[in-house]
Amino acid sequence: MLKKMILFFGLCLVLAGCSEKEVDVAAHPIDPSLDICHACKMSIVDLHFAGQFIDSQGQVFNFDDIGCMISYLKKNSDTEKNLKAVYVTDYQTQEWLKVDKAYFVKGRLDTPMSSGIAALSKKAEAQQLADRIDGKLLSWEEVKAAHQPKPKTHQPDTDRQTEGEER
Predict the structure, then answer these.
(1) Region (Disordered): which ranges (predicted)?
(2) How far apart are the two ends of the chain, measured CA to CA in Å?
(3) What pLDDT is attached to residue 162?
(4) Domain ranges of the chain
(5) d(Cα 90, Cα 32) in Å, to the nearest integer?
(6) Phi/psi at 96 (5° precision)
């Protein structure tokens, strides 16, 4: 009987270890001296436009521009299914906001990757910014649908010798 109880408890421990681990979904601070954008690999120095998501494994992905985050999600469509939390920084306070609580403005804003997208926590402030820059007030779903990733341009390698060419 003792062997059966030990086996039973051992099996319970094994099964408990196989269950999904608890993932920390709190926004993580960005260190401008260390953190880079997961999409474009640039340093994240202007926190007015930053984004971040945390996946089901607890991995944190940082972005220097909300447009970079959206482009990454569009190019990696399976990623969005595994997200536990998605954040953007408030344009004015630079504090983290959950995307479903943010109001987005798209317009003539000088953002790190030229997406022109900013997020604010208050609708009235977002509308004032939109009016000031001749922009649009959008929800998260609308800004995702409206944002088109910029195609990468190929820069010719001028140092490479082509066939028949002398140096």
Answers:
(1) 144-167
(2) 86
(3) 42
(4) 25-146
(5) 16
(6) -70, 140
pLDDT of 1: 60
d(CA 66, CA 43): 14
Identity at 102, one-letter amino acid code? A
- 70-73 LR contacts (CB < 8 Å, sep 24+): 70/115, 70/117, 70/143, 70/144, 70/147, 70/149, 71/39, 71/147, 71/149, 71/150, 72/38, 72/39, 73/144
Which of 20-29, 45-54, 142-151 shows the lowest mean pLDDT across its residues?
A: 142-151
Closest CA to 86 of 76, 105, 73: 73
In the chain, the amino acid numbered 39 is A
**159 pLDDT more than 50:** no
Instruction: Write down the pLDDT at residue 137.
Output: 97
How much is the CA Rg of the chain, to the nearest whole Å? 22
DSSP, res 108: S
136 sits in which H/E element? strand 136-138
- 11 pLDDT exceeds 80? no
pLDDT tens for 121-141 read: 999 999 999 999 999 999 999
Q: How many CB atoms lie within 10 A of CB 156?
A: 6
- Those residues with Cβ within 8 angstroms of residue 53's Cβ, 6 or more apart along the chain or in another chain: 60, 61, 69, 83, 85, 86, 87
